[in-house]
Each structure stands twice: as C-alpha cells, then as structure tokens.
Amino acid sequence: MKPLVKEDRLYKKVLQSILNYIEEHSIKAGQRLPSERLLAEALNVSRTTVKEAISVLEANGVLHIKQGVWTFLSATCNQQMNDDVTIMLRNQSIQFLNLIELRQAIEGDIAFYAAKRITETQKETLISAHQKLVAAEQAGEQAINEDLEFHMAISEA
Description:
157 residues, mainly alpha, 2 strands
C-alpha cells in the first residue's frame, strides 16, 4: 500500500485501498487483515480514518470485526463480490465505492420517512427483525441475512 494524500473524505480512499489490498493479496474469506494501526501507518492516515473505512466495509458485509481480536474478510464476501457486485463493477462500470456512497446517501431519508409512516404491523415486523439481528450479533454470527431483513423492514415502512 502507498501513503495517501489527505483530502476531504479521506476514509473513501482508505476504503478503496483496503479493497485493493484484499484483491492484490488474494485474501480469502475468514482470513484476517492487517491491524488498524498497521493500515494507518502504511497509508499515512489516522487510526480514526481507518476505523471509519472499516466500519463502512463491515456495514456492507465485506468485513467482520471481532472486537479486540482482528478484522476478517467476511465469510460471504467472496461469493457476494463474485456474484452481483462484481458483475455490476465489470459490466456497468459502477465502482463498489459508489454503491456504498449511494447506500449512505439514502439510508437516513429512508429511516426518516419510515419513522413518520410506519404502521403497527410494520413496526412489529421491524422489532422482530431487530431482535433477530441483535441475537445473531450477540451469538458472534455475521448476521448478514438478519441485517438485510432489518433494512428491508425499514425500507418497506
């Protein structure tokens, strides 16, 4: 990895560097990545910036973090990237970072309108999905399906 020049939204460049590192080093599902400290030193950025990038990648199912241990490539990430995302990246010239930016841009509005418009039935569905998500995370699972169910319940509301 090469040190980065600091600019606005530096975490996006860090995020892209991490994705490049995963590809260049053929990191497989379940393998760990360098520590936040090592990534920060290699990229010449703060650990906070690295944490932000890793958080975005974790929220998008690419990485799995075991607190106090390491950051691992998600068990489903390789398959996921080889399927939908890779097809979009290669065939439609859409960058993965753009997909993440899109998700970040619309999630706040979706949650806002869901809170204003939610029905009692949708609220029950959302509470159930949230409970499943929390239970899966507490069990140490990656909770990708539970996360999807939770976000779909919000978007349906």
